[in-house]
Write a structure and sequence with these properties.
alpha/beta, Aspartate Aminotransferase, domain 1, 17 strands, 17% strand, globular, binds pyridoxal-5'-phosphate
Length: 402
């Protein structure tokens, strides 16, 4: 059992008030709060170590490089990759997916080739493929959802053809809270010799990731959703695929030799890391992953899944409550009667309760559900049942105003 009160003391922001009320932060799907150790590690690096990485012979540069590369090893361990050559630092999930769409697309996708997505994807796993489509006439196929908010796996099986080159799908829906059976999906795709990209943005904070056990070909996540800093993320890719892909951006660091006639590329993972990386953020990310790992996913999952079950049950006591999707883990999307999601979110905010409202960057999913948006409560390891009770009371209060 987690000592939640002790954990909460690691996150100073949770003790603050908004509008004179204690903050109830239930917008963790958008971004998580940061434990003091993450901020301290980054402050310490800026104050005592700071120097550009990889290029310096001097002491500070070497120390900063060691921290940066140690962070890469921490990420490798976190996702259980074979080698740090397979861990590319990006700005976040969005950039990781854009990198694959652009670079894998250039190497492997030709006019008439097909990419399979699903109806529950975040825009960041839709639009990069459309940008590619504007350059190469690929076909985007979409796996439909069941009415329960799960992927229709039978329909998915029927989407594969001899032209399918990639399947890209989210692990956990940021709207429905569905945990997709990604291991089964990857097996299905591999039976058709199709590689798979997993968007783990909403999985990384809640579930253990093991890229070797999953056998996924690419996996992307963002630091800021897993208690780390903003502006840093990860792309895992199988070395055999990354080796065959061209660089995504050009500049310093990603090169071997440069001349005006001919330029060669650096080895992995640097081939995909042009320019000065956010080496302080990578230190912060490593500290965040260490923080999560020290608590351990068994305890995190037990706490968060119990909290999500409790929240679903309490929310269902509210008249005219509609919950969208199964909320397997940490995300509950809902509407109450005909109260507009924006009104509900705004009035909850006045009570100190931070939730998200709108389409959650998943407009095609909103079309499928036949709605414009929802209110979304999303939990992290520091949330409590008392906070769920405050949310339920808050919704009741708002309901009485309408
Ligand atoms: N994929 C999913 C499922 C998400 O929930 C998000 C963010 O909400 C993203 C991708 C994009 O993440 P980022 O904005 O950190 O790049």
């Amino acid at each position: 059992m987690l000592d939640i009160q002790e954990i909460r003391r690691d996150f100073p922001i949770l003790a603050r008030e908004v509008y004179g009320r204690p903050l109830v932060y239930l917008d963790n799907g958008a971004t998580t709060q940061k434990p003091r150790c993450v901020v301290d590690a980054m402050t310490d690096e800026y104050l005592n170590v700071n120097a550009n990485v990889h290029r310096g012979v001097h002491y500070l540069s070497q120390q900063a490089t060691e921290l940066h590369e140690a962070a890469r090893e921490t990420v490798r361990r976190f996702v259980n990759a074979r080698s740090t050559a397979e861990i590319i630092f990006t700005r976040g999930t969005t950039e990781s997916i854009n990198l694959v769409a652009s670079s894998f697309g250039q190497a492997f996708l030709h006019d008439g080739d097909e990419v399979i997505l699903t109806a529950m994807e975040h825009h960041s796993n839709i639009v990069p493929w459309q940008l590619l489509q504007a350059r190469t006439r690929i076909v985007i196929k979409v796996c439909p959802l069941t009415d329960e908010g799960r992927l229709d796996l039978e329909a998915l099986e029927g989407l594969f053809s001899s032209r399918t080159r990639l399947l890209s799908c989210t692990y956990v829906s940021n709207v429905l809270g569905t945990i997709n059976p990604v291991a089964d999906i990857i097996r299905m795709a591999h039976d058709h010799q199709v590689p798979v990209l997993i968007d783990a943005a909403q999985a990384a904070p809640h579930l253990p990731l093991d890229v070797q056990a999953l056998d996924c070909d690419f996996l992307a996540f963002s630091g800021h959703k897993v208690y780390g800093p903003t502006g840093v993320g990860v792309l895992y890719g199988k070395e055999t695929l990354l080796d065959q892909m061209p660089p995504y951006m050009g500049g310093g660091e990603m090169i071997g030799k440069v001349s005006f006639e001919h330029t060669t590329w650096n080895q992995l993972p640097y081939k995909f890391e042009a320019g000065t990386p956010d080496y302080v953020a990578t230190t912060g990310l490593a500290r965040a992953l260490d923080y999560v790992s020290a608590i351990g996913f068994p305890a995190i999952m037990e706490h968060e899944q119990e909290l999500t079950r409790y929240a679903r049950q309490r929310l269902m006591e509210i008249p005219a409550m509609r919950i969208f999707g199964p909320s397997d883990d940490s995300v509950i999307s809902f509407l109450v009667g005909d109260i507009h999601h924006l009104d509900l979110g705004t009035l909850l905010d006045r009570l100190g309760i931070a939730v998200r409202t709108g389409h959650h960057c998943a407009e095609p999913l909103m079309h499928r559900l036949g709605i414009e948006g929802t209110v979304r409560a999303s939990f992290a390891l520091y949330n409590t049942k008392e906070e769920v009770d405050t949310l339920v009371k808050g919704i009741d209060r708002v309901r009485q105003m309408f």
